[in-house]
Amino acid sequence: MHEFDLIKKYFSKLSLNNKNSLNLNDDVFFDRSKKLVVSVDTYINKSHFFDFKKPNLVIKKILRSSISDLICKGVKPKYYFISGSGNKKTFTKLNLAMISHSLKQEQKKFGIYLSGGDTVFSNTLSFTIVSVGFAKNIIFRNNAKINDDIYVSGNLGDSYMGLKVLKKDISLNKHLSKYFVMKYYLPELYLDLSNKLQNFANTSIDISDGLFADLDKLINKQKLSYKISLTDVPISKKLKDMILQKKLQKIDFISKGDDYQILFTASKKKARIIERTFKSLGIKISKIGKICSSNQKSQIIDEKGNKITIKNKGYFHKF
After folding, report:
1. Is 109 inside any structural domain?
2. Which residues contact 147 (CB under 8 A, 6 or more apart)?
3. In this structure, are 188 and 293 located in the same domain?
């Protein structure tokens, strides 16, 4: 069963009398009267992170991916709670010391504070993080407009290349291997953008499961479609060089997720303010397509102008 089918069948009705739950169809809980925004994420070893040989980096990855849910909504994270399950092999004194040191670094970097949590014994290593922020408004899903431009921040695909390096599915030199692996562990988040995003974004999401999977989720309850130019989807020069050198497919890398870049739509009238905002913050921004009516199917246009289809749009939780 697909994750969203599970939610719809068993849990959606439980939230009908709670408008703050956003019908369980967004990344966050939002209580406008209390200006409270909350997200919850769980991360399982071998599923959400490759292994636990680098606990100092793993904990940074999962914390960043959690607070990314708030940042893409136009909200600055303030507090976080963390619960972990593990055993004597995973929660050694050395590992716990590294985790504590990394969390301290992240708190300083993002201005967030550990506020509680829990620890339990288990042979399955996992972490659950609750992120909390405060805002008068947020950017919701399913609020795109026909003819909206579609934008994405930063570059996509480096993280997946890093995962392939870790899995030894691809062989690169030491310098490139380190570059891509660090992109996997340390996604770049744009905290300074969070309080400006609401000035122009109609709807937004962070790219966790892959560009096309998350774009589908962004408009999943609207009668809309999209047209994406594969040429305009941004990737780093290093990834572009590797794709050409090893004869790989760009679409395979941008579809795998773990990028945590911000995907949003905005009116064409907002193009100048978007460009000025990103330029002033020194953040890369790319317009990759537009929102269309449901009269036509969603399209991905390749470098030669041909319509293409992909079998696997991204990562999906199945039960």
Report:
1. yes
2. 267, 268, 290, 291, 292
3. yes
